[in-house]
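Lab notebook, bench 4. Still working through the backlog of constructs that have no structural model yet. Next entry is a single chain of 96 residues. Request: give me the structure tokens for it.
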Amino acid sequence: MCGPWDDGFDGEAADLEAGIWVRGVNYVSGWRDAREAAAELGDVLTLAGVDVAGVRLRAAAGADGSGVVRFELSAAVAREVVALAREAAARCRRAG
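Model written out:
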């Protein structure tokens, strides 16, 4: 997969000492879940017409092993997402 949601090497070296690793916590499972969620989010943003060139989605695992998706976007893309959310909210209000 190649896109804003991939987990390709981004030039930053992994710092395995940056966090505390707890024996028995399944970090890999959480990371895999986050990777799937990031891919789904990236796909939906693409389907919605968002310019994903200004989006970066990274999968990670929290201290408890749960999946975490880090969502970084440019200001222009943030405004696109805001406009989409406002449009969806307006549709929901009209439908309800």
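Notes after review: DSSP finds two helices and two strands in the chain. Helices lie at 27-47, 75-95. Flag for follow-up if needed.
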